[in-house]
Specification:
This protein is mainly alpha-helical. The chain is 40% helix and 8% strand.
Length: 173
Amino acid sequence: MLTSAIIKTICEWYNTISLVNRAIQIANQTSYEQVWCVFDKDDFDSVDFNNAILLADANGFGIAYSNQAFEYWILLHFNDHQGGGMHRDEYNDKINISLKEFNISYDGKKSKVITDDIFELLDGIDDKTGKERKRLAIERAEKSYNRFDHSNPAIEESTTTVFRLVNELLKYL
């Protein structure tokens, strides 16, 4: 059983396809056991978004994308949203409705900072189900993701594959 991992995070801001090309460049300079590309659909071109997924997959990279935005992953820790597309402009308010009972707020319109308080809450136990919130989010994300055939991820709103990255990271706990 694996008990530890060395994780190197490289945070560079690129559009979807440019990010994957940059990951290829970095991966060619140094040997890594795994490379993950994490990006959002946002308003990026649908063809570029889909091609970024294909290119990352062709290079053996893990892919943790969100359509439309990463905040969908946060929302799934509290809400089993399976109702189809939700524009990313709605995520902030939905997240804050869930955080209100904990006297915490998220500023997804400006800073997009996940504070320690929010992170602890995401990593905590859901009072209603008794399950870890991250496990609930994984289940909910998989359920949402599996509603689609993935022939055109750019139109598959709202979905995220961040659950794949989190499942991988959980192997090291």
